[in-house]
Amino acid sequence: MKEKMKTIFFNLSKKLQYACEEILLMLMFVFLLFYLRWITNHNYQHHLLITTRSTNKLNKQIFILAGQSNMAGQGGVHNFTWDGVIPHECQPNPNNILRLSVTIKWEIAHEPLNYAVDCLHNCGVGPGMAFANAILKQDPNFGVIGLVPCSKSGTGIHTWIRGNMPYDQLISRAKFSLKHGGTIRGLLWFHGESDTKDKYTARYYKAKVMKFIQDLRDDLKSPLLPVIVVVLRYPKEPFDRKFKFVNVVRQAQMDIDLPNVIKVDANDLPVESDGLHLTTQGQIQLGNMMAQAFLNTKLQSLKYDSNKIYHMSS
């Protein structure tokens, strides 16, 4: 009888022990769920607070970024995959640098800036974040910067006309960027590689890019909108054989004769192994050059000197 009672009590104690362990595990699971929910909500509220605080400011200083793959950003991209390296010059500035996303919403700007606008997994570092950070470093009172990426890889100048998707999307995004207040301060334009492959397109590049700038200014009702034009870099050998007429397009870019057009020469900036796309460091240098060029002219008269070209040493 004693042995039977011992067995019953032993089994009962085991069941109670298992039950307690199960209850403890359930309580720990419930606690973990509440904790994760709190963390997620806390981070979301923090993100929302920062984003709302920034996007509600009505004095956003807006820059449109357009062109081809170099403006979209290929810094750090190898074998169609971005290495994920973000130097401090390209780090987010949550309170002061925003990005208009592909879903037409202002958000905290971060690399890769052109993600989903043109490229996905192979989109890397471009000049935009370095440009914005350099502006704020030199002028901390510049205000909240809103970046509007609109680049489309592989698009020749003939596609950047009214009625075509790249141009119409640019105009649509640019107009939306003004919806909650702000001023479009300029267009950053890095384009022309595709047009260096053919003699005909290279020959007419100047006329077409000037028409693009004039139409852009007309459609945005900003007849003197500043435009920073990046003068193409010569491709490295042996890739230069594919881009035979780069000298023609470079000269066309240098010869643009419109007010408020600022030229920045990308020649000699470091490029990736493909001989064409700027490295991450090259993009940072370019962003700094563009910022310096913009700040050097923004307080001058409305008619900027379109004949001055900014080089690496400028």
From TrEMBL:
What's the name of the protein?
Answer: Sialate O-acetylesterase domain-containing protein
State a single Gene Ontology molecular function: hydrolase activity
**PANTHER family listed in its UniProt record:** ESTERASE, PUTATIVE (DUF303)-RELATED, SIALATE O-ACETYLESTERASE DOMAIN-CONTAINING PROTEIN
Which Gene3D superfamilies does the entry mention?
SGNH hydrolase
Q: What keyword terms does UniProt attach to this protein?
A: Hydrolase, Membrane, Transmembrane, Transmembrane helix
Q: Does the keyword Hydrolase apply?
A: yes
* Domain called Sialate O-acetylesterase: residue spans: 60-295
> Transmembrane region positions?
20-38
